TrEMBL record:
Biased amino acid composition, Basic and acidic residues: 39-48
Record InterPro entries: THP_succinylTrfase_dom1, THP_succinylTrfase_N_sf, Trimer_LpxA-like_sf
Recorded family membership: Belongs to the transferase hexapeptide repeat family.
Domain of life, source organism: Eukaryota
Biased composition annotated in UniProt, kind: Basic residues: 1-14
Species per Swiss-Prot/TrEMBL record: Chiloscyllium punctatum (Brownbanded bambooshark)
Gene3D superfamilies assigned: Hexapeptide repeat proteins, Tetrahydrodipicolinate-N-succinyltransferase, N-terminal domain
Name by which UniProt lists this protein: Tetrahydrodipicolinate-N-succinyltransferase chain A domain-containing protein
Positions of the Tetrahydrodipicolinate-N-succinyltransferase chain A domain: 54-119
Biased composition (Polar residues): 26-38
Disordered: annotated span: 1-48
Amino acid sequence: SSRRRPGRRSRAIARQKDRRVCLDSAASNSEKALQNSRHIPDTPKDRPMSLSALETTVNTAFDAREGISTSTKGEVREAVDHALELLDKGEARVAEREASGKWKVNQWLKKAVLLSFRLNDMGQIAGGPGKASWWDKVPSKFEGWGENRFRDAGFRAVPGAIVRRSAFIARNVVLMPSFVNLGAYVDEATMIDTWSTVGSCA
């Protein structure tokens, strides 16, 4: 038997269905675009803070430091952690020498170090002689380091050398049994001799 061609009414219904499918698809795409436009990254991994934004956040938090505690989260904690990471990597310095030869103190980085004591709770710090531990707020710079990490860093750390996290140690440095406090910057080819102490933010 021969097939019947669809009538005008059937063709009109089919066109209406196609139009609805297109409209639904367009609406769905528009909604996705709107959701994407509303997404604001809220972690340093998504969108690292600029130095000026870090400085502003740290300065504002320091002025209101009475309200900062171990329960503080969000932007303030992220800013302080980011600042300490910059110090630890040597990408920022609390005290830096300008082209004129004068020394400049980046007060906001010093404030970030001070805020970290309010933000971080006491905890067990491994690495003591005979597998002993310390009880402190600042972990060792070398926590979790293995042979590859030490080789990449390119400095010597003999037994008894203590360096706190956020201190920077450059290549070819020799650390004898000594103490390097947080936020310090030890430049290339320096020897920190036996029982020497490098102060915080030095």
